[in-house]
Structures are given as C-alpha cells and as structure tokens.
UniProtKB/TrEMBL annotation:
CDD domains xrefs: AKR_AKR1C1-35 (cd19108)
Organism (species): Hymenochirus boettgeri (Congo dwarf clawed frog)
PANTHER family xrefs: ALDO/KETO REDUCTASE (PTHR11732)
Protein's recorded name: Rho crystallin
Family assignment from sequence similarity: Belongs to the aldo/keto reductase family.
Residues of the site described as Lowers pKa of active site Tyr: 85
C-alpha cells in the first residue's frame, strides 16, 4: 500500500477510512473546550479522520470544530470521517439508537461515518456513566453482545452510521459476533490499545484474516491519565531504541511510532492538544522505515497495557484476561 496523506483503507462494507486519525480524548484535568481548538488545528494540518466518543464528554466541542471548518471552506462533510462510540451503559438494544441520536445532536451531524461499541463491558443503564452502589461497587449489566450488535446493524440500515464496528474486543468476542446466526454486517474494525510495547501482532493477524481493520489508540503511549494509568509504567516515547531510530531518520519518536504502525497495516490514531505536535504527528508520509528498523521496533513488544481497565476485571465480559 502506497502511504500518503490521503491514503485510506477499504472497509469490508465498501466504505473507506483514512489511515491516520486524530484522537480527541483528554484527561479530566484538561479543559474540554481544548477539544474544539485542537480539532480545528488537526483539520487545518490535514487530518480527515476524527475519533471521539460519548464518554469523552466533548462531542459538542468537536462538533463545533467540524462545523466551523466546513463553514470556512476548509473541508466538506464528505471529506471527513467521524468515529463515535456506544458507551457501556447503552448496551441494551433499545438504547443503542437513542444513544447514537443523542451524540449526533451534540455533534450537529446527520450521520457518523463509523459507530463502534466502546467496550464489551455492559454497565447498568442510567444517568451515571460509571454506576456504583453505596459501597463503591460497580453496577454491571448483563447484555448479550449479539443483541447489541443487531441494534447497531439497525443504525446502519437507518443511515445514522455508515459503518459499524467494535473496540476493545478480544478474538473470542469478535468471533461471537462473526458467528452470530443471521449476521447482517461484520464489524468493519476493532479499535484497541496498540503501541510498540503492545504491538497486538496476533490480534492484527486474526483481524486481517477476517477482513477487519485494526485501529490503534494509545500509539504514542497514552495520556498518563492518573484516573486510568499507573504512573510508574515506562514512558514509551523515551525508549532508547525508538529514539535511536528517530535520530537516524531525523524524525520525532512519535513520528516513528506512528509510521511503524501505518506500515504494519494498522490505522493509527494520534492524540494531542498541542498545535505543534498535532502538525508533527501528521508529518509521517515523507519517510519510510526499512525492514531492519521495523524488526528492531517490533522487538520492543512486551505485552504491556497502559489502559488495562483492571477496575472491571470481575466483569464476565472483561476482554483482557485472554492473550488477545
């Protein structure tokens, strides 16, 4: 595949997804309003794939940015690829379409290019996005993921989402959907944590064998969010091997990390609220990593998760007990 700033990957339903995307998640300590300025900056430098989620709490800000960039003539709606996500409290089939429509209203969009199940972990429906009882115990909700998927398929049929997929699913959970009797649409993608310390090689090969695109988040090593990330974990972008390759190519460690996954066939999401880094993260199409560098970077894998979601490890659908 010839990689260039306009490169897209074909999805199994015939639509196309830009191979590099702009991630909009920010830790609670960051002001949500930064998402609007960051998204505008991302579109200005060339990003056409915008990844957001109901759970991030900033869809209205991201939507305003998209609206402004369409109004000022920078892009047309059809130039953009927007990904949104179904949060864990909306897995009940009758809530799926309502959740999607609520997001579209906040975004001021008529449709999403891609709507994905954020996690396979169902939580109790209600106003609280992370519901707990009076003792601080999470309130789980048991829903058959195949039924949630059927509701996703209806959203595609209604034109509310052009493509549908999943996120944070392991191989077994993907097969549950793929082997569902009466399956109408396969997931087009599985969006998962993916970086040089967790290169997801086995999951990538499985997804390729089923014509499912692997989309990687956390490729630059995560936001170091205190709420979800252990602060004693190594900082990916400080890795000496990665930095040596970056020096060799006169690129930043982030650019090399992104390039590695693009060359591996992973759709890469890059996240930043810093305009200089947003621009740098898109400048990954003017160099190529030779096989030697690719192998050296591949050897950094240590199956280390930053986002291990271990707070939900007792959930029957917890995805990370499996190897992949």
């Amino acid at each position: 595949m010839d990689l260039n700033p306009e490169s897209c990957i074909s999805l199994n339903d015939g639509h196309k997804m830009p191979i590099i995307g702009f991630g909009t998640y920010a830790p609670d300590k960051c002001e949500k309003c930064l998402a609007e300025e960051a998204t505008k900056a991302a579109i200005d430098v060339g990003f056409r794939h915008i990844d957001c989620a109901y759970f991030y709490g900033n869809e209205a800000d991201v939507g305003r940015a998209i609206k402004r960039k369409i109004e000022d003539g920078t892009v047309r709606r059809e130039d953009l690829f927007y990904t949104g996500k179904l949060w864990n409290t909306f897995h009940t089939p009758e809530l799926v379409q309502t959740a999607l429509e609520e997001s579209l209203k906040d975004l001021q969009l008529d449709y999403m290019d891609l709507f994905i199940i954020h996690m396979p972990i169902g939580l109790k429906p209600g106003e609280n996005l992370i519901p707990m009882d009076e003792n601080g115990q999470f309130l789980y909700h048991s829903v058959d993921l195949r039924e949630t998927w059927e509701a996703m398929e209806k959203c595609k049929d209604l034109g509310l989402a052009r493509s549908i997929g999943v996120s944070n699913f392991n191989r077994r959970q993907l097969e549950l959907i793929l082997n569902k009797p009466g399956l109408k649409y396969k997931p087009v993608c599985n969006q998962v944590e993916c970086h040089l310390y967790l290169n997801q090689n086995k999951l990538l090969e499985f997804c390729k064998s089923r014509d499912i695109v692997l989309v990687g988040y956390g490729i630059l090593g995560s936001s170091r969010d205190n709420k979800w990330i252990h602060q004693d974990l190594p900082v990916l972008l400080e890795d000496p091997v990665l930095n040596a390759v970056a020096m060799k190519h006169h690129k930043t460690p982030a650019q090399v990390a992104l390039r590695y996954f693009l060359q591996s066939g992973v759709v890469a999401l890059a996240k930043s609220s810093n305009s200089k880094r947003i621009k740098e993260n898109f400048q990954v199409f003017d160099f190529n990593l030779p096989n030697e560098d690719m192998e050296n970077l591949k050897s950094l894998n240590k199956n280390l998760r930053y986002m291990d979601a271990r707070v939900w490890k007792e959930h029957p659908q917890f995805p990370f007990h499996d190897e992949y």
